[in-house]
């Protein structure tokens, strides 16, 4: 029982951390994004999304990762370079 409570505390903190990173990088997340994040119960998935939020140069890259679900696991390449020149070349991403 204590283990389940501890896991829920970790998940709750990871959700809060993810939302904070998203707000710092891209502005306040929309309600549907918050709802999607609230529905995630796996710490591994939340931690992967925290890394994606920290490293995605534009919102669309993070959004794609959020839609990928828990099956995704590699965050590599120029796509996850937060200072990528292509990030500044893309229009319509915020």
What is the gist of this entry?
By secondary structure, the chain is mainly alpha-helical. Helices cover 65% and strands 0% of the residues.
Describe the structure.
This protein has 94 residues and is mainly α. The chain has one domain. It has helices at 2-26, 31-38, 43-55, 59-68, 85-89. The model has no long low-confidence stretch (mean pLDDT 84).
Low-confidence region ranges = none
Shape: globular
What pattern of helices and strands is seen along the backbone? Answer: HHHHH
Label the structural class. mainly alpha
How many alpha or pi helices? 5
End-to-end CA span: 42 Å
Roughly how much helix do the residues carry, as a percent range? Answer: 55-70%
Q: What is Rg?
A: 14 Å
Q: For the residues shown, what is the average pLDDT? A: 84
Number of strands: 0
Number of domains: 1
What percentage of the residues does DSSP assign to strands (E)? under 5%
Outline the biggest β-sheet.
none
What topology does this entry show?
Elements: H1 2-26, H2 31-38, H3 43-55, H4 59-68, H5 85-89
Helix pairs in contact: 1-3
